[in-house]
């Protein structure tokens, strides 16, 4: 096991199948969708059809694996000074 000097952070992600198993209230607490939880479920099913198994709970995530999960972000800071 090798420790890298660059720390990597990951966004929290939840398996789509887990989200689909949640009830209205619980799902509504996690995802917001203009069409409500029914719209959210429709979109989650579309994700599964496209091969996305995981939903990242942060739309700012710009580095995702093909399955939809967060691939990690280097948190190394570039010092401008
Ligand atoms: Zn991410």
Characterization of this structure:
Helix content is 33%, strand content 12%. The chain is an alpha+beta fold and 81 residues long. It has one domain. The strands form 2 sheets. It has a two-stranded antiparallel sheet. Strands 2-3 form a two-stranded antiparallel ribbon. The model has no long low-confidence stretch (mean pLDDT 88).
Poorly predicted residue ranges: none
Q: Give, in spatial order, the strands making up the sheet with the most strands.
A: 1-4
Structural class: alpha+beta
Percent of residues in beta strands = 5-15%
**Helix content bin:** 25-40%
Q: Could you tell me how far the N terminus lies from the C terminus, measured between alpha carbons in angstroms?
A: 34 Å
Spatial shape: elongated
How many helical stretches? Answer: 3
The total count of strands amounts to 4
**Which kinds of small molecule does this entry bind, naming each only once?**
zinc ion
CA radius of gyration is 16 Å
Average pLDDT value? Answer: 88
User: What's the main sheet like?
Assistant: 2 strands, antiparallel
Number of structural units classed as domains: 1
What letter string, H or E per element, gives the SSE order? EEHHHEE
